[in-house]
Amino acid sequence: MNTRTASTLVLNPDELGPDPVAGMDLAVKLGIGRLEIRSAEGANALTLADERLRHIRALSDERGLAVASLASPLWKWCRPEATPGRVDSFGFPTRVASGERLGWVERAIEVASLLGAPIVRVFSHLRVEEGLTESFAGDPLLARALDLANRAGVRLLLENEPVCTVAHAEGLLEVLERYHGQGLGLWLDVANLHEVGQATGDVVKALAPYVGYVHVKDYRPTGDGGRVFCPAGTGVVPYCEVLPLLHAAQPVLPYALETHVRDVPAEALAAGAEFLRAALPGGVR
């Protein structure tokens, strides 16, 4: 395999718990050389002190691992007077006043710099009550954040998150076409796209030119209308259709394993890595 043109696997240590060492050691064991940092030591990465972030980077450096991305919670928020639904923001507040938001954007860029992460995830405002739900496209903070990120050598990528305002292909394409020239790309979560009924070949081909990062998780439906997470490739998300299309458009991408399998996360991550190595046409490293 030509590793200069192969896609890469990424592992998030907090899938195994608050101590990042266990996840880092698993990454080494699985031959995964890159990390996604979201939370550590029981706190969201944006709220950790600089010395703790430097410690996390030192732990990764000691193992020959690089931080590929900061999975920040930026824009996974609403106004203080709004009522968010059930949202997992990993220790970050879901209600954030307008005057506090720029500070969090600046902090995320600082954290990315401390970790050596070239990518920072953003969302698109939580969907809340009518009249209180905010618009992502046209948000003046987005243009400011893109400018700050560009100056810092960091790229912002928008995740398609069903609890947020921009989750369907039409909205994603509108935002990406508007801001792609300023550096905004797509943090594609294929399972989230499937959840809204749009993980189809045509949609993926339309989104593919904007994709800079891929989240990989899988699930099976339950009899009561819910779902249970499972290792990638063993659920209903159509990866065997989607992955070749993504590879054809973007031969080199980071594929981050996000299992959400709580009882046996290490086994699920190992199975997901094995699946991706077999399923991606260009191979991964």
What features would you describe in this structure?
By secondary structure, the chain is an alpha/beta fold. It has a single domain (8-279), classed as TIM Barrel (Alpha-Beta Barrel). Helix content is 37%, strand content 19%. The chain is built from nine helices and twelve strands. It has an eight-stranded parallel beta barrel with strand order 1-2-5-6-7-8-9-12, surrounded by six helices. A two-stranded antiparallel ribbon has the order 3-4. Helix 4 links the parallel strand 6 and strand 7. The longest helix is centred in the middle third of the chain and has 18 residues, at 98-115. The N and C termini lie close together (9 Å). The relative contact order is 0.14. The mean pLDDT is 96.
Features:
285 residues; alpha/beta; TIM Barrel; eight-stranded parallel β-barrel; globular
CATH class: Alpha Beta
Order of helices and strands: EHEEEHEHEHEHEHHEEEHEH
Trace the largest sheet across and list its strands: 1-2-5-6-7-8-9-12
Shape assignment? globular
**Biggest sheet layout:** 8 strands, parallel, barrel
**What does the oligomeric state look like here?**
single chain
Q: What amount of the residues lies in strands? A: 15-25%
